[in-house]
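Why show two proteins at once? Because comparison is the fastest way to build intuition. When a single record is shown, students tend to memorize it. When two are placed side by side, the eye starts asking what differs. So, the first record is below.
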Amino acid sequence: MKQFLFQITLAGVTFCPLLRGEDAQPSPATSSVTTTPTIVGPAREFEPPPRRQLVADVPESQVLQRSRVATGGRTVTIEELIPPEGAPLVEQASVPTFTPEEIAARRAAWLANRRAHPIVMLSLSGTIYDHKATLLRWRHGVEEYEAWSNIDFNVMRGVPSVQVGNTNYDLVMMLGDQSTAPRRTKSGLVITPRVPTIPQLPKVPGFVIVKGDPLNEYALRGIRALHELYTTNREKLVAAHEDQLHYQAAAQAWEKEHPPQPENVTIRWWRGRRDQEATSEAQPAIKPEGGQP
């Protein structure tokens, strides 16, 4: 088992760059997006959650011990019950074992698959100004990149990944909106936000690099793919974003009219047959009713 864990750890250390798609510098692609993305988002109207179904009480004779804890304006009750008839035997899950030859073969297969289908984690942070331009920031290796895009990246929130050739870019986007209009505080002070200088942006969906190597096509492939995706799927992306906003507004309105109220909670459990045969050392630390253990 130790050898297996060591082999897996060594494989992770050795091939993490490959997992990020850094095994080779792929050639640039002029039309690179090869798949239609799955756009994540609600495609339905908001429906209020159903009322919680209360669990029926159990006979007092079935309760072995009970403890209660008051927290957050509610009471949490924990009850240990007598095991029901025919409670299944809990078996310990088997752990597969591999020979060194099997480990090497599995690692070689994994490596070949990653070389053929690299996975790149693309972490983007973006500030969206007035829903008109987005300042994107990301890293390629140790180098920092910044680019101004003429896309309102709010519409890209529902895109979890994009595929370019055989490379899949998994997206982690942290986006925030910023208004450039002056605002007045409660004290009457007028604050004008500081806005970076926005360069001349393309007339069609595109971006301008303002930090980092603009000739490193490998560092730009994911960003370029997102803009190509927007160009070919703009209507779907905008519709999905508007649907998400509508869903969120309806959910917030309902929650405002129906603020959550603290509810008492009861947790019931019992021991499996294997637990019943264990020694008293396996007893859980549950406080008895109305006192200290």
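Second record. Ask yourself what differs from the first in the token line.
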Amino acid sequence: MHISNGLPKFENVNALIVVMGAKSVLFYTGSNSTLEELESFYLKEPEYSKNRTMRGVNAEKGKSSLRSAYTSRGPSLLTDFLQGFYKHLVNILKQNVITKIYMFCPTYMEARVRNILPKDIHNKIVAVHRGNFVKKHPFEILKMLEMDHGIEGVVIENNEEEID
């Protein structure tokens, strides 16, 4: 789509805009007044049956009891999500010449994302906006970039922690 007036045009720059939420990621490229959605990635959570039970022993009372077999896969779901994100990102970078990366991600994920990126990718990140912006229109994302237009390496704190 053509980028309207008053928004960053990405002249002579091939930018990748990564918009990450708790379970989904959108990848956009910006170049020469156009913005294009390349890919999206969504991690589907596994379904659990709350009717399943298993027999366990209460350690305090020494008695056998029934308890739910439902267990949270919180840390492994996050690991699965980050691995999927990384695979998509590497694939995009292989297929496109990207000179700058603009990240939009929830505050709690920023360090985890930076830790999985190799140095060559990490060095392309010029701005990080903290918050969950997955449901925002791409032009709203560009308006946020306009706030730090011309400033590289800036971190913008936005308190919009929506759940996607």
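One difference worth noting in the second protein: The radius of gyration is 20 Å.
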